Amino acid sequence: MSNENLKRVVIEPVTRVEGHGKVSLLLDKDNQVKQARLHIVEFRGFERFIQGRPYWEAPVIVQRLCGICPVSHHLAAAKAMDVIVGADKLTPTAEKMRRLMHYGQTFQSHVLHFFHLCSPDLLFGFDADPAIRNVIGIIKKYPELAKQGVLMRKYGQEIIKATAGKKIHGTGAIPGGVNKNLSIEERDVFLKDIEQMVEWAKGALKIAKDYTVENLDSIASFGSFDSSHLSIVREDGALDLYNGGLRAITKDGEKIFDHFNNQKYHEQIAEEVKSWSYMKFPFIKSIGPENGWYRVGPLARINACDFIDTPLAEAERAEFMAITEGKPNNITMAYHWTRMIETLHSIEKIRDLLNDEDLQGTDLVVKGKRREEGVGIIEAPRGTLFHHYKVDEKDQITMCNLIVSTTSNNIPMNTAVERVAQEYISGKPEITEGLLNRIEVAIRAYDPCLSCATHAMGQMPLIVSMFDYEGKLIDKKAK
Amino acid sequence: MSEKTIKFKIDGKEIQGKVGQTILEAAEEAGIYIPRLCHLKGITPHGSCRVCTVKVNGRPQTACTQPVVEGIEVENDTEEITEHRKNIIDMLFVEGNHFCMFCQKSGNCELQALAYRFGILAPKYPYQFPKRELDATHPDIFIDKNCCILCGRCVQTSKDIDGKNVFEFVGRGPEKQLAVNSKANLAGTDISVTDKAAEACPVGAIIKKQEGYAVPVGKRLYDIKPIGSEIENK
Question: Is residue A54 within 8 angstroms of chain B, CB to CB?
């Protein structure tokens, strides 16, 4: 696109937990949005500096690229290392300990996002005074809800500690298994509060569901668009956050590929590089880079799976799918509802696991024939996460490729930003606080890392500058 | 014939040592921990790390090499000496590349444990970020020179206990580094994973392959008790 006679609006920084992002909008002389981009300007580098390290360090090192969902990276890397050490089937104790860790992680991550980051938008409205529209506002007006959010998150974090050794950056998953089981004492602490957690998860889900249903007319088009969806699913088509084959569906629910072998993911998924972002652009190869992008995360998973194997969440899934008569739901704001369905599913899974005696087993590690290449794919809270490694005969990592969830949601987030900008900026020369928040609301629906910390205290560190095509500053807003 | 007792004092407390004992050994028998890194039972003490430095009648000496002498006054747990020890530990950290957060020796590392014992949570000297090599050629043992503190325990253990002479030091001053007595690498030596030298490293420089993180956080050696407590609680 020629930039001649276009104005550029830059939102910088959109704060990310471990870095920065920015939004840039190009407007023509009639202030119509011609282009909207979310740039991730932070350079990650883990793929490079893991090279040369011994493979068993990967699950412990690579998880450090994130402080929000390190468990996902820990487990994805461990699953890849299972392949490397030839552990084709883990012991029941090892697999269930890892699953418990993962459901604890998903539970706490989804809860954090819902209660701390997005609930102010849902409960106070996009245009509410930012001094109120934050987590402190939630604590003041909805103290019981705020308390539930804190205690639910704590519950998930304690499960992570009991399975990984630490709440953040633990060591529980090792190549071929785990390094600990769950003691009876640890189990009993969790069992004491489990029913309360299930009830609170149901309550949070109701808020997200009621909000979506009551506001369906207005949010149906908010940053929404048709897209393909990608997820792993269990052999029988059930939602499975820990293990399964890759499934991609079209906007109408037609399968593009199904139960695809994780080890060969690169036969279906490729990545494109663009000069304006450090994030790559993954796409489904058979469709091509232009239209092969897809969504991941709770919405994609609920759309892609055939059913959920826990009764409460399955009933909610059925209700959710009824909105679109069983077809995939492509409403961006529906992410919140599906995220809460998964929260309920996670706590149901945790309840099942806590009552499973395999968690007290002592057979923790298996190994088999050593391989030189391994892929680990897991459904992280924010979506499908790919870890791919090559290891030489000296046990040193020679290649690492990571496709993180936020990367897969790169084009979807860009598209959502563009839709919102076109709806709310086009034709309006002045940038309002409501606009800024709407852009964030659209990004935040995907729960990317960069949503964190930008909003919670009502001091969203956003600066929007609008320049005319000669580079002259014509408007600037900060909040 | 009864063994002759040598009486001396550590921080004013009367200690009874034996002929031929070092200050460090006599202190240990008396339940007094003198911090150390290069000292390892079974090898000849050489006083290289200086962490065990005490004052003997006012003069700095390494407790691992200094024999007990009748009537000496030893200063160990004083503010001045603790400060010196903290500085040494601090410098060892910044001189190498010690990434405790993912090091598989974490929780079992003597350097890290000493830092915790002394309350060092972050170094005060600037990191040197040296470029150091890995040697992963051996099928069972891995050398990560990023963590090497040049204590010499592996060199001496291989020589004195294993009788193999696998390790050596090369270079001088800041260029000094651990090397192996082979033209190429560790795979070219006769070291075996069952050698005592493979277990002699106080830090994460020499590690056994494929064993990383097998012990969960909370159950590792120094997760349970601080370093030195096994001597102090005897």
Answer: yes
Are A37 and A183 found together in one domain?
A: no
Q: Which CATH number do you get for residue B28?
A: 3.10.20.740
Whether B109 and B37 map to the same domain: the answer is: no
pLDDT digits (tens, 9 = 90+) for A101-120: 999 999 999 999 898 888 88
pTM for the predicted model, two decimal places: 0.91
Domain boundary pick from B33, B56, B77:
B77
What integer is the mean pLDDT of B86-110? Answer: 95
Rounded CA gap, B156 and B43, in Å?
6
In whole angstroms, give the CA distance from residue A244 to residue A237. Answer: 9
Q: Among residues A455, A449, A426, which one has the least CA distance to residue A126?
A: A455
Q: Is residue B217 part of a domain?
A: no
Residue of A nearest to B106 (CA): A171
Q: Is B216–A60 a contact, with Cβ atoms under 8 angstroms apart? A: no
Q: Do A165 and B216 count as a contact with CB atoms less than 8 A apart? A: yes
B48 and B154 co-located in one domain: no
Measure B196 CA to nearest chain A CA, in Å: 22
Q: Which range marks the domain in which residue A113 is found?
A: 90-224+337-364
State the CATH number of the domain containing residue A174.
Answer: 1.10.645.10
Q: What is the pLDDT of residues A21-43, one digit of tens each?
A: 677 778 887 778 888 877 765 55
Residue B234's pLDDT is what?
Answer: 76
Nearest CA in chain B to A172: B216
- List, in sequence order, every beta strand (DSSP E) within chain B: 5-10, 13-18, 53-56, 59-62, 73-75, 134-135, 141-144, 167-170, 177-180, 206-208
Q: What is the ipTM of this complex?
A: 0.93
- Asked if A395's CB is within 8 angstroms of B213's CB, the reply is no
CB contact under 8 A, B137 and A54: no
